[in-house]
């Protein structure tokens, strides 16, 4: 039984080159991927690269108050939105009782992140009472628009449900007719109270009747005022667009604007039939089987799916444009498709002329929900990297001094073995740098000052692994073994110690990453990454390299500069006793007499 075991051990010792080739291939592949991706340096956080600092002031909405719970919820949603866009290392934190500070580093999607952090993302599905081109488009209506029977592009695209797209939505026909006919349509719609009335509105109450009451004094009624707002609305003006859906209540009719391919449209909308909070999931997908292009697929909750089926069923009974519903996001119509029959199944799609980024941004906001409060942008400040650069320079200087002290200690105490340790540190540094560069575009990792500190701390963790292995080898030599068996016998004991030590370090980094936020997570992430790389380097580089060096005369003979001199280590006499020379008649010779 002993012979096969020795054979396997000898076979394992004779092929350390395989591990070295494997780690060399990994380094070459990762480095090649880094250059191929064009990201040859790690992404930097806001403290090192600069960026934008935004101050948002909370405003209480109807039914919501400015309190700690709502502010914490807003911070959490903003954090998830920004991370969903791939802008990592963004800091979102409260300041005082009604302010939120958002720090966004320069980099991919930082402009879009700045746009989304304060976007309320309140979504409603409202039936359309009337709609028409607004602004320049209204001044010069196309012949098809004035004819009252043709169609032109509309804002956004169309949803679809479990029914086939052709049956659920047969295109994106736009509102048609002249301004005069549209004005009559507004009046008729309000007077007839033809707004579809599903079982419940977004606010939880039944949809109110739109039938107006005649004004009894000089003050116009609500419906008359709404008609006046609709008639005066010019969506080509930014001020009108901003005020169109401002302070709109879910249970009341309102006006809104929508854009498509540079043309603006204005809408008169009924009470909300479905609330965006009843969208369970939203994701951007590309339609590979049709010509719809990028779409946002939505899945409703059970209650939301029933309301959506009710409203689409009611709308399908009406004539254009009252067979349409507006998908209203933060007061702006992003789509207003018409319906031919009820859309059941609890699923819908917003499809049409979306670009990939637009579809992903919309899905991102819908997925992470609406903010419980509205926010006003108080200030936007550009942050320079000057202070961070000085701190980075000081941190790198401290790291260089620490590394130099480690190297001096290794050279003085371990002598020739210090070459193995330094080579292992170089390999670990290369892997760390390349992987950090690749993680920037892959998961949005950004290197900040705490992350740099984590990398510096990792130098000590990595060096500690080498020292554990070297000391185990020395212990075996002190027991009287030669270097080659000492290297192999020391490895199992050192391996257990290294794995336990690295597991504790990784566990601490993981817990720190989970329970903290902001920059401290950068420290924890870097510490965990370098701990894992320490295991890889020790197993695939340090141990195989020691096996190869044990076959070289300089180390095998225990040269005094090898760091493995048996005499210097206080080695015991060899385990095998030396046979005495035989004297006359086979009697052993006393060494003293000889």
- The mean pLDDT is 75
Helix share, percent: 40-55%
The value of Rg in angstroms is: 36 Å
Overall 3D form: elongated
Number of helices: 20
Number of beta strands: 13
Largest sheet geometry: 5 strands, mixed, barrel
Give the strand order of the largest sheet, numbering strands 1, 2, ... along the chain. Answer: 4-6-5-11-10
Strand content: 15-25%
Give the termini distance in whole angstroms.
Answer: 44 Å
Low-pLDDT segments, ≥5 res: 1-12, 139-187, 189-221
Judged by helices, strands and strand pairing, the structural class is alpha+beta
Question: How does this model look, in words?
Answer:
Helices cover 49% and strands 15% of the residues. The protein is of the alpha+beta class. It has a five-stranded mixed β-barrel. Strands 2-3-1-13 form a four-stranded antiparallel β-sheet. It has a three-stranded antiparallel β-sheet with strand order 8-9-12. α2 runs antiparallel to α18 (519-549), α15 packs antiparallel against α18 (519-549) and α16 packs parallel to α18 (519-549). It starts with a helix and ends in a 25-residue tail after the last helix. The model is unreliable at 1-12, 139-187 and 189-221 (pLDDT under 50).
Short description:
The protein contains 20 helices and 13 strands.
Short key terms for the protein model shown above:
alpha+beta, disordered N terminus, 4-stranded antiparallel β-sheet, 594 residues
Topology:
Elements: H1 2-13, H2 17-37, H3 46-49, E1 51-59, H4 68-84, E2 91-95, E3 99-105, H5 110-116, E4 123-134, H6 136-139, H7 143-147, H8 165-168, H9 179-192, H10 222-232, H11 238-244, E5 254-260, E6 263-269, E7 274-275, E8 279-286, E9 294-300, H12 302-315, E10 325-329, E11 332-335, E12 347-354, H13 356-368, E13 374-383, H14 386-414, H15 417-443, H16 449-478, H17 483-515, H18 519-549, H19 553-556, H20 566-569
